[in-house]
Backbone:
């Protein structure tokens, strides 16, 4: 029918610089050109042409739970857990229980955590070296 391809995800944040620092330092996203040229928006590459846009605004009305999240995957899961510890980021499992991770039925480990505005992020251990 249609050949839709994921392009970008936009979130509203209270403090643009604080959120930008989080996405750069904690997740390693590179800031890219903001083609809107609007000062209240910053763009980040998520790899393979996918982007995250963060826009300064009132995020008080945004309510999320662990069931609504962006999911990423990587090979060095244990190294990433140590990385989260260095930034004092609370780890959760898929039910939102703190100081815990999830191991799926297929053996893949997952960790959930929140950005400075409370948006949930899931990071999965890659299943194979090709992932």
Residues:
């Amino acid at each position: 029918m249609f050949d839709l391809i994921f392009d970008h995800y936009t979130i509203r944040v209270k403090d643009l610089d604080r959120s930008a620092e989080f996405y750069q330092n904690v997740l390693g996203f590179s800031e890219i050109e903001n083609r809107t040229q609007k000062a209240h928006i910053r763009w980040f590459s998520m790899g393979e042409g996918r982007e995250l846009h963060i826009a300064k605004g009132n995020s008080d009305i945004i309510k999320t739970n662990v069931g609504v999240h962006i999911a990423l995957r990587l090979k060095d899961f244990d190294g990433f857990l140590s990385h989260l510890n260095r930034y004092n980021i609370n780890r959760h499992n898929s039910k939102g229980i703190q100081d815990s991770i999830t191991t799926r039925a297929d053996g893949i480990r997952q960790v959930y955590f929140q950005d400075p505005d409370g948006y949930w992020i899931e990071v999965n251990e890659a299943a194979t070296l090709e992932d």
In short: Residues 77 and 125 are 5 Å apart (CA to CA). The chain has two helices and eight strands.
